Amino acid sequence: MFARENIEYQGIALPFFHDMTDEEMQMAALDCYEFMRHRHSVRDFSARPVPRDIIENCVRTAGSAPSGANHQPWHFVAISNPEYKSRIREASEEEERKFYAGGGGDEWLKALEPIGTNDDKPHLEIAPWLIVVFAQRFGHFEDGQKFKNYYVPESVGIATGFLLGALHHAGLTALTHTPNPMKFLNEMLGRPKSEKPTMIIAVGHPAADATVPEVAKIKKPLGDILTVCD
Fold first, then answer.
1. pLDDT over threshold 70, residue 141
2. Which of 69, 82, 94, 201 is the most buried (most CB within 10 A)?
């Protein structure tokens, strides 16, 4: 991590590399695809508890993501406190009512129709955990002096992807939620103004009668998302 006393490059031997044959790599790539394609954003959660250490280990995975200049410009707040979850739901639904009343614009609202979302967000209370992702626009040395972080949206996006993958790997379901604006989260959770809340992730087990939008199973074919120049 960036620090005043460690600003020169010092190389060390690669700590670990999982060396595989081409055949093993092919199998590993397909295994990963088969596993991750069964990840779904679930809006119907069970109240079944999730141990704290599982959430902590998933956040550890997120913290291992690459970042601009290795500044690691993220912070995660994991919430199981029912009062906090209730307050987050109330504040989020207030913003969502404005959005669905027309603030989001006709085109955006039309695009959301097949997803079946609305301004009612019970999952924010039912899911055993909420994880709020904050992006740190700048950091501070121990003496309080400020320094700039780089590629913050990209870095936080990568870390969030790591987190979603880790949660799925741990047998959990998750739903991303992005009420806008989300400034109320800084004050509520005691985070500094230098941090921007980017996402609320509801985490837990799916309800027995959980459903997902049929349209969510429609993914672009490889030819539409990949160009190969070889």
1. yes
2. 201
